[in-house]
Task: inverse folding
């Protein structure tokens, strides 16, 4: 089924119509059987230096490698706990939190013909996810051993109780399985398969022409019945964003994911016949627009000042004008679209300039002769147009309450060093990612005691023993309901004390030719395996 | 011929200190930019303190800048350009992969702008002050004022998106399996738009230089003499005026070759051509020092060679050059 949402209306209408007459919907492709064959050409804006998804858990790497190397399970709209099986067919945690048992899929072979077994899972977990992977180092830190009683059972054993809920939520992004027989000899960093991956996925790696394209070809021995439908996937390297929109219109490419087409172009391109703008398919990759605060600054260490700043930001304006409606206003550190952990029951900071001014007066920072209370150094992250634009807006919004925020623009490495290593900022605009569980990459944003230089972590010198205690408790709480309650408490504490200010959250946009079917049918679609994607002849 | 050899030898000799200055200067400029290759890499993927430290060690970034510069110069003395940290491949291989595309793009664009520019310059300079001259001058000024990327976008929208005559990106059709003449034609088709948008902007320069040089030559006595002898105007324009006005144009060619390397950064990004310009931009944004120095060094060698060729051409055209009495 194709999910085409020109902001929401058509999807809604299609849903209602479906209730009335499910046969009268030829345009939704329900009756059409998927066609085999064809070459899908998609836009890629970067070429990662390492295509190994087990080592580098990042969307840039997954975008290409997720079609070749598979995880144990994938995110799903319909599946139980939001998961669909991939290399594992079932998973179960022990009541003491010390082990997780995976039943593995039988009859799966690597692209070189070797059978896939539990030894591959044990090797990947112990030698790659835990010691080498950027995110796995946190989630699998207490992993001690992996038992393999038979070829299709792998039991992860932990030295300390580890919440099964966390492991389950981490399955899609963190558990890509590597072939042991190709990685067991030599240094994993230098393995040639890092740049020409070999996996169990629906597509095989064919070639990479640097600066031009990646080419993947159909894996004829894939375990999925009749899958994949496509013969080939080509990733064309298109570094210029305006060029991606042009290439879609001239039918040089079929699809541009991760908002490769700028938001400002969407209104125009959605009117071009044969092109769809799709907003689904990024639910498990929610980006958050956050104001990071350096609590070493005397003024910013004062809660009233932080509350005043939160009141000074018009979230509706940010959503409507900067994100052109393709975003949601935030209430706290967990995004609204998260079904497990989100709670709206936290202190809110509605847009109120008078209240913000009053709070600043109360805090003891009166306006000077020039109307300015104090000056701040504002560093907008350069990764997205929207983070830069929000930086410009924030300067104006703070000027209205008498705070002079001076913008310092840097390129990506300079921004990294200034904010996360040198702490040479007062406030910064950051786009952290919520990855389905607060323990993966969200609590680190406010937790204390993190060494200097760790990107996307608390480098603002904030320390709150109460929040630290809740984070520590949740990390060892096994009961899912209790764990969720702790993270709801975490959201309340963060929203009350404002170690950082959550402003908005957004998913990316996919723009595709209507001939491409089964687009965005899971919450991590762009970084899933595309085994069921097909092209209408 | 002896004269030309001497000139070549002198030029190549002075090239060595120039290249040294370029390498050392480039190194410290990138060093002065905040953040290093690890910051750039980790910024894209995230990671913890231990990972960052081990990456810095692996990539040799825990050494002092002087130590690293020393190592780089040492390997350079052995004609080794080192390893790129972001591509984890030898810099030489990466550059050799990209160089032909840039040379093709630059060469065609230079040929286009030089040929068309000087031709139109002759047309304009044949009658300085005429309506034709003024129209061409204004048109060329307008063209010169256009930013290359804007011209590129407009050309793409017209010829690639709307008319669909020409491809809007890439250097050749992807994985087409074409070889020989079919492949050459395919590449030529892909080059039309980038070469046009790069070449048109520089065309104006040649046109204006040619035209003003011709306007000056018209005033010289020998032109008056040829006119007095009753030589046909067409012959005066082509044989006498244009020919004498060509010299400054040749100088211009040397200068423009360097400028075009800069312009290719924008055009290569816009049209997704995998060339040196785009590589330089990627190297800066990932703080990949060996790669950037390799690109800078290659470009410097290119510029030196083009200038040498121009000087030799100049010396052939004008016998006064390179006789030793030149200042």
Result:
């Amino acid at each position: 089924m194709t999910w085409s949402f020109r902001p929401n209306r058509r999807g809604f209408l299609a849903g209602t119509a479906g209730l009335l007459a499910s046969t009268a919907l030829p345009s939704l492709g329900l009756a059409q059987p998927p066609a085999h064959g064809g070459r899908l050409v998609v836009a890629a804006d970067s070429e990662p230096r390492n295509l190994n998804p087990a080592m580098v858990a990042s969307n840039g790497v997954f975008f290409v490698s997720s079609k070749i190397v598979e995880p144990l399970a994938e995110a799903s709209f319909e599946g139980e706990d939001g998961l669909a099986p991939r290399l594992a067919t079932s998973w179960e945690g022990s009541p003491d939190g010390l082990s997780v048992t995976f039943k593995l899929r039988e009859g799966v072979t690597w692209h070189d013909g070797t059978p896939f077994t539990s030894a591959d899972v044990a090797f990947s977990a112990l030698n790659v996810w835990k010691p080498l992977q950027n995110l796995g180092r946190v989630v699998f830190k207490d992993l001690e051993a992996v038992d393999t009683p038979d070829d299709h059972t792998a039991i992860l054993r932990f030295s300390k109780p580890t919440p099964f809920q966390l492991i389950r939520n981490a399955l899609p992004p963190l558990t890509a399985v590597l072939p042991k027989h190709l990685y067991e000899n030599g240094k994993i960093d230098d393995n040639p398969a890092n740049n020409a991956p070999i996996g169990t996925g629906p597509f095989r790696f064919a070639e990479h022409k640097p600066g031009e394209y990646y080419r993947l070809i159909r894996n004829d021995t894939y375990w999925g019945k009749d899958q994949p439908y496509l013969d080939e996937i080509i990733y064309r390297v298109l570094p210029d964003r305006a060029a991606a929109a042009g290439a879609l219109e001239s039918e040089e490419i079929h699809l541009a994911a991760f908002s490769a087409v700028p938001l400002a172009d969407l209104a125009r391109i959605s009117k071009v016949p044969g092109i769809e703008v799709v907003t689904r398919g990024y639910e498990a990759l929610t980006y958050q627009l956050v104001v990071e605060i350096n609590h070493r600054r005397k003024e910013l260490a004062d809660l009233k000042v932080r509350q005043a700043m939160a009141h000074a930001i018009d979230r509706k304006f940010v959503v409507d004008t900067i994100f052109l409606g393709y975003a949601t206003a935030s209430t706290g550190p967990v995004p609204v679209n998260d079904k497990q952990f989100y709670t709206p029951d936290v202190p809110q900071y509605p847009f109120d300039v008078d209240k913000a001014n009053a709070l600043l007066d109360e805090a003891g920072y009166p306006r000077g002769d020039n109307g300015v209370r104090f000056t701040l150094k504002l560093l907008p992250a350069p990764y997205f147009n929207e983070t830069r634009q929000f930086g410009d807006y924030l300067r104006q919004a703070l000027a209205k309450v008498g705070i002079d925020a001076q913008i310092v623009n840097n390129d990506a490495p300079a921004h990294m060093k200034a904010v996360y290593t040198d702490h040479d900022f007062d406030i910064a605009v950051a786009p952290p990612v919520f990855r389905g569980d607060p323990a993966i990459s969200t609590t680190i944003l406010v937790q204390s005691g993190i060494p200097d230089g760790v990107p996307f972590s608390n480098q603002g010198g904030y320390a709150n023993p109460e929040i630290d205690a809740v984070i520590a408790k949740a990390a060892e709480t096994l009961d899912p309901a209790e764990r969720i309650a702790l993270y709801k408490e975490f959201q309340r504490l963060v929203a009350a004390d404002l170690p950082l200010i959550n402003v908005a959250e957004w998913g990316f946009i996919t723009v595709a030719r209507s001939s491409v079917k089964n687009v965005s049918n899971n919450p991590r679609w762009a970084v899933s395996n595309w085994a069921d994607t097909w092209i209408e002849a | 011929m002896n004269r030309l050899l001497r000139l070549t030898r002198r030029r190549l000799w002075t090239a060595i200190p120039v290249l040294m200055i370029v390498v050392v200067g480039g190194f410290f400029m990138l060093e002065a930019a905040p953040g290093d290759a690890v910051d750039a890499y980790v910024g894209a993927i995230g990671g913890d303190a231990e990972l960052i430290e081990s990456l810095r060690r692996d990539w040799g970034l825990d050494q002092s800048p002087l130590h690293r510069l020393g190592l780089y110069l040492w390997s350079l003395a052995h004609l080794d350009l080192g390893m790129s940290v972001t591509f984890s491949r030898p810099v030489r291989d990466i550059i050799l992969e990209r160089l032909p595309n840039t040379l093709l793009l630059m060469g065609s664009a230079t040929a286009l702008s030089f040929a068309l520019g000087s031709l139109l310059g002759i047309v304009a300079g044949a009658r300085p002050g005429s309506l034709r001259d003024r129209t061409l001058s204004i048109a060329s000024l307008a063209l010169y004022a256009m930013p290359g990327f804007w011209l590129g976008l407009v050309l793409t929208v017209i010829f690639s998106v709307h008319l669909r005559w020409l491809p809007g990106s890439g250097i050749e059709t992807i994985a087409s399996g074409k070889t020989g003449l079919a492949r050459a034609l395919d590449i030529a088709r892909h080059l039309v738009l980038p070469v046009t948008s790069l070449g048109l902007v520089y065309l104006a320069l040649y046109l204006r230089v040619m035209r003003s040089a011709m306007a000056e030559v018209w005033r010289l006595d020998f032109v008056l003499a040829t006119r007095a002898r009753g030589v046909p105007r067409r012959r005066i324009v082509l044989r006498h005026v244009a020919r004498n006005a060509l010299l400054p144009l040749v100088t211009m060619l040397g200068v423009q070759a360097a400028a075009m390397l800069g312009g290719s950064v924008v055009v290569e990004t816009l049209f997704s051509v995998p060339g040196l310009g785009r590589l330089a931009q990627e190297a800066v944004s990932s703080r990949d020092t060996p790669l950037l120095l390799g690109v800078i060094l290659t470009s410097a060698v290119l510029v030196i060679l083009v200038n040498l060729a121009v000087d030799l051409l100049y010396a052939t055209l004008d016998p006064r050059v390179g006789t030793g009495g030149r200042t």
